[in-house]
Amino acid sequence: MAEIVLDHVTKVFPDGYEAVKEMDLEIGDGEFMILVGPSGCGKSTALRMIAGLEDISSGELKIGGETVNERAPKDRDIAMVFQNYALYPHMTVRENMGFALKLAGVDKDEIERKVDDAAETLDLSQHLDRRPANLSGGQRQRVAMGRAIVRDPKAFLMDEPLSNLDAKLRVQMRTEVAKLQSKLGTTTVYVTHDQTEAMTLGDRVAVMRAGALQQVGSPAELYDGPVNLFVAGFIGSPAMNFMPAEISAGKVRLPFGEVDLPEGAGGRDGKVIAGIRPENFEDAEVVGDLKGERGLVFEAEIDLVESLGSDLYAYFHVEHEGVQSDQLADLVEDRLEETGAAGLREGEEQVVARLEPTSKVSRGERTELWADTANLHLFDPESGESLRG
Amino acid sequence: MGRGTRDYAYWSIGIALVLIFALIPVIWLISLSLKPPDAITDQRFIPSEVSFDNYKSLFEGGIDDSPFIKPLINSIGIALITTVISIVLASFTAYAIARLEFPGKRLILAGALAIAMFPPISTVGPLFDMWRSLGLYDTWPGLIIPYLTFSLPLAIYVLVAFFREIPWDLEQAAQVDGATPFQAFTKVIVPLAAPGVFTAAILVFIFAWNDFLFAISLTSSDASRTVPAALAFFTGESSFTQPTGSIAAAAVVVTVPIIVFVLFFQRRIVAGLTAGAVKG
Predict the structure, then answer these.
(1) Which B residues in the span 149-168 are in contact with A, Cβ-Cβ below 8 Å?
(2) Considering its fold, how many domains does chain B have in total?
(3) From CA A69, how far away is CA A57, in angstroms rounded?
(4) Which residues of chain B make contact with A79, given a CB cutoff of 8 A?
(5) Nearest residue to A172 via CA among A183, A182, A187, A162
């Protein structure tokens, strides 16, 4: 077990592409750290640099206090779980799991014992003499995990280990991974593009975009206090709604009304981008007294209703006067394209609201909605940075 | 009659025709080799009288006097040595070509292809001269070297194709598991490339085993003459008899190692050995 420290770690590929830019990250001993971001954001490259499979162009990488930049993967004492499992097809499950120990010169009985222990933990005992080709996807995934845990390494590195499983198995294995990690207490770096996995698994989550670290924090910190539009749009499902707004004289003018500038929201007079999470909307009828105290009641025409039983998603659009510049629209569109959130169209945008399932809203009707503006997020339209102090 | 059955019937007829076409000469050869000398010209497909005299005559006189034993040893030795050297060199080359980016990679592949295309006959004259002045004429290395020249490109091409199919991740997994690059190669990549290695080995072995051109041009005695060349020097029982029977018997005998070799390695060529390594 050990801590992993990345100090200004940079990766430049021979073709000049800068995959990871000056990454600073401290992963504590025993911590479960998630690297999350859209594809191509450099998260896998960062992991592969920690593993030693990719050279570090500049910066320093320390594992357990020792600089390991120049060390071969085999001398770093780390175990890695690959996205496609990378099991050795010519070896049985037992041989696969014992391979690292065999290379390390551990004696046979010891290997046998450790493999049996790991197989027990992962419920693989009855499959030890089969070959990977004869295993199901979930079993292969567990063998890949088993190969990592038998070694008792300084750290586990996992590169999207669950992305090849079907949805149901993925959720099941997600809890298994979390349990296993907390039981073993081994420092773990886990790469994923799935924000749900990131939010549910990690002690801390590091969000990356275009090779640069955006924000590092606990899932709650990222959710409640995103530092920029990207993190705000990436974390949370459905994604945060963004809309143009304007601050003047202590008031925020949103497309559907005006509210007092929430405390701690920060900001100065001028144009901003406002973000409201879907759950901060509610059917005005359901809210009751609260709507008098804070927030904003407005009327909207519901375009679409999706009922999931426990939740009800209502989609509506808000129009705004042509107060926004083209440049802003472009910026936002670019940002949202990456985050996969609903696009911000010229003069109109789609907003999703998560309502109580008891709400009576229906498609095509005009309904009174309430927005809890205490949780309003405001962002600088030029840089995308959060305006919160 | 369903479409499947009809297809099956057509295929069966087609395969039968090809088999007859390919095997009749072989059977004819076996038939010839079993006839006594005076029945060689009887034009019967099935010998009226079976005799193993032709085979006996091949091995008569022991190592020193038999016209066949020494060439057979030469053939086996030269073909095996060629195969081993060729496969070892070709695996390293092919591995580098499949895995690494280095300047001149295309040049090496293009060069290999060019050599494979080069007509061997045009090299025989110069080689003859060179080998005589270098003392390689009529020696094993004198044949092994040209065989390597022509078999390496073939082996490299076959192995590059196989190595490219092996997931890169497996090797990296081995490295993370604590293997040196050499261990990763020998313990993970080579076992997985085994079907490819055996395929290449068979091709190289058959090439070296069957060669007549170099064997006849670069040898002058039983010191290094291989079977295909030695057959041309067979004599009949007297100076007036054709050695047809002995040649047929020798031809049958030299086919046997090839069949054994192919059958032996074919068991290793298990398709889809890499199945289950990685998902997808």
Answers:
(1) 167
(2) 2
(3) 9
(4) 176-177
(5) A162
Backbone angles phi and psi of B66, in degrees to 5: -65, 140
DSSP letters of B17-61? HHHHHHHHHHHHHHHHHHS-GGGTTS--SS-SS---HHHHHHHTT
Cβ B176–A133 below 8 Å, yes or no? no
A157 to chain B: closest CA residue: B176
Q: Which CATH number goes with the domain that contains B125?
A: 1.10.3720.10
CA atoms of A368 and A75, how far apart (whole Å)? 64
Q: How many Å lie between the alpha carbon of A260 and the closest alpha carbon of chain B?
A: 54
Give me the residue spans of the domains in chain A.
Answer: 4-229, 240-379
**Residues B179 and B252 both lie in one domain:** yes
Structure-token pair, residue B59: 């091995």
pLDDT one-digit tens code per residue, A181-202 = 998 899 999 999 888 899 998 8
Minimal Cβ distance to A103: which of B170, B178, B278: B178
- B-chain CB neighbours of A151 within 8 Å are 177
Q: Which of A181, A184, A200 is nearest to A192 (CA)?
A: A200
Backbone angles phi, psi at A191, to 5 degrees: -100, 135
ipTM of this predicted structure = 0.76
CB contacts of B279 in chain A (<8 Å) are: 84-85, 137, 140, 164
Interface test with A, best of B162, B175, B177 (most A CBs within 10 A): B177
- Asked which of B34, B51, B68 is the last residue of a domain, the reply is B51
Q: What is the CATH number of domain A4-229?
A: 3.40.50.300
Partners of A63 in beta bridges: A4, A66
Tokens describing residue A319: 């129009």
CB contacts of B174 in chain A (<8 Å) are 88, 99
pLDDT digits 0-9 by tens, A310-343: 888 999 888 765 434 444 454 455 445 544 444 4
**Residues A99, A105, A106, A112, Cα dihedral to 10°:** 40
Q: What is the pTM of this model?
A: 0.75
Residues of chain B found within 8 Å of residue A131, distances taken between Cβ atoms: 276
Among B167, B178, B180, the residue with its CB nearest the CB of A86 is B167
Are B85 and B47 contained in the same domain?
no
Tens-place pLDDT, residues B123-173: 899 999 999 999 999 999 999 999 999 999 989 988 888 888 888 888 889
Please name the residue of chain B whose CA is at the shortest distance from the CA of residue A131.
B276
What DSSP character marks residue A278? G
Domain range for B246: 59-266
Alpha-carbon distance A133 to nearest alpha carbon in chain B (angstroms): 4
Q: Quote the minimal CA–CA distance from A231 to chain B in Å.
A: 31
End-to-end CA distance of chain B: 38
Q: Is residue B278 part of a domain?
A: no
Question: CB–CB of B279 and A137 under 8 A?
Answer: yes
The answer to whether residue B276 sits within a structural domain is no
User: Residue B275's pLDDT is what?
Assistant: 45
The radius of gyration of chain A's CA atoms, rounded to the nearest angstrom, is 24
